[in-house]
Design brief:
Shape: elongated
Strand order of the largest sheet: 6-11-10-9-8-7
Number of strands: 11
Strand content: 15-25%
Radius of gyration: 23 Å
Order of helices and strands: HEEHEEEHEHEHHEHEHEE
Length: 268
């Protein structure tokens, strides 16, 4: 991730402006000019946020020195020292809440993701994220998801086309809708169709979808149907060697192991 891009710099500037405003009113209360601080974990988890924290601290005060004892994506135990800081005391205090908030939020996502990806470790199935993110924090949260071992789905409406349940309710013909997307979009556009039944999934394959997203389908039904879907897709794509991608969503994370079924590419 290129954290030096103007887009990310602007977002981080907004975080700092939100908290510091015209300046920290408690600054005059501090008599010691230089101080040291240590971050210590309160429980086990997976860390995320090193590069972002460095940018925040640099923007607040370039005199702050950092010594990270952990890398993004690295797991840690309780009571582990992960960061040493040294610099002007008023700057360390002014930066404390912003840096801790973002590190805890992103590390929480990475930790939860890591727990799920470990359950998929013995299969070729990948864990993918969604667009259900906090407004303004999508790129950061999706980065944290990667730090936990997951992979990113589309970043927004602009980099892949997904025909979902609500789209299907307002389109007359699925194949025609797919064709119109292809005509209006770059040739690299990937088209995904959400299916709430096996019959809908078959319709999407025949209509020319690149991926199907099977939503809230029971594992028993998937096990008996996945081979039929694969065979149908292979017959449809036998001239262009395209492989249909099959994604599963709408499941209880506590039951993710019930969906470790050969033929599924992603669980989102």
């Amino acid at each position: 991730m290129n954290w030096q891009s103007p887009k990310f710099e602007k977002i981080i500037d907004n975080w700092i402006e939100e908290d510091l405003g015209y300046g920290d009113l408690t600054k005059p209360a501090i008599s010691q000019e230089i101080g040291e601080a240590i971050w210590t974990t309160k429980k086990e988890g997976t860390f995320c946020g090193e590069s972002i924290i460095r940018i925040i601290l640099r923007k607040i005060d370039r005199q702050i020195e950092t010594n990270f004892l952990i890398k993004d994506g690295e797991e840690f135990r309780k009571n582990k020292k992960i960061l040493e800081l040294k610099g002007p005391t008023h700057s360390l205090l002014s930066s404390e809440r912003i840096t801790l908030n973002i590190a805890m939020h992103l590390s929480g996502i990475a930790t939860y993701t890591k727990g799920l990806t470990k359950k998929l470790a013995n299969k070729k199935i990948k864990l993918a994220d969604t667009r259900k993110t906090t407004p303004g924090l999508r790129f950061f949260e999706k980065y944290a998801f990667r730090c936990g071992g997951g992979i990113n789905h589309r970043m927004g409406l602009y980099d892949a086309a997904m025909i979902k349940e609500n789209h299907l309710a307002w389109c007359n013909d699925l194949k025609d809708s797919i064709n119109r997307i292809r005509i209006a979009s770059p040739f690299t556009t990937h088209i995904i169709v959400e299916a709430e039944s096996i019959n809908q999934a078959k319709e999407a394959i025949i209509a020319g979808a690149d991926s199907i997203l099977l939503d809230e389908i029971k594992p028993e039904k998937l096990k008996e149907s996945i081979l039929d879907l694969r065979n149908l897709a292979n017959n449809q794509n036998r001239f262009n060697n395209k492989r249909l991608l099959i994604e599963m969503s709408g499941i209880d994370p506590n039951k993710i192991e019930d969906y470790l079924i050969d033929g599924i590419d992603f669980i989102s």
